[in-house]
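REQUEST ID: PR-0412
SUBMITTED BY: lab tech R.K.
PRIORITY: routine
TASK: structure prediction, single protein chain
INPUT:
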Amino acid sequence: HVEREEARAKAKRLEESLELGEAFDLYKKLNYKEDAKRAAGKLGENFERQHRFEQAVAYFEEASRAADSKRLRQENNITAEVTAYYREKTGAEVYEENSSKVCLILAISNDKMGIGSGFLVSKNGHIITNHHVATELATKLKVYFPGDKWRAATIVKTIESPDLALIKLVDANDLKAEPVQIAKQANTKVGAHVFALGFPDVKITEEKDALLNGTFTEGTVNNNKREVAGSQCFQTTATINPGNSGGPLFDNLGRVIGVNTFGLNIFAGVQNAFFAIKSDEVWKHLLTDLSKRPLK
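STATUS: complete
OUTPUT:
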């Protein structure tokens, strides 16, 4: 009880110093509903002054200020679908919306097999993963989305530093999975909730032995300005194990903000420290040029 009250007092100090986003997050985490509504209302007012009306509507709805929400919707033609994009999501919602978009990747060479994860970024079958996943055993790549069949893939582009790769399905016909939403600027704050999704510790002797679904873990951002091997990374507490490499790190809006990377040996011995390359790097090295023309 004492710790809870101390945390509430911290949230109030944040609110008084106009750190409204952090205050709102802490109130919600502590389940102080009225305090969270008050902070959300102030956030809505701030966003409205900045003419960021979609965010304003989302926070006015969190604050139960229906009249303000309705007014901005009507004045700016904001649909429920648009507002939903800016509304914070629970872990269950992030998983439900994105689990079908994350894939298991097999890198096969003769009698050897490596595993990793990836995520879909175009309807034509483009997938982001790690460089070391795509190239470690590069003779053949096979990809499996939950509920789908095994599909062959080829390498489009790889970069050793940062550890990123773009691969493409040979045949994306009848693929039901939809692309993820990728943040162009990963400015997630320290303390924010994040979610990792991938296929860790999968034991496969034959392709038919694949798991149907990935593994979902939750954590917080410990450091949002970590530089590792020349790459801008998040350090988080969202558990990443072998097989998670190349999978997405989501924020609480359901956007990909990073690519999970396992085995950063320079941090060996540090407990509960996991790293994800920021989505800014993905756009810079793999998607910026492609976004200027259709991904084919």
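NOTES: The longest strand covers residues 215-228.
REVIEWED BY: pending
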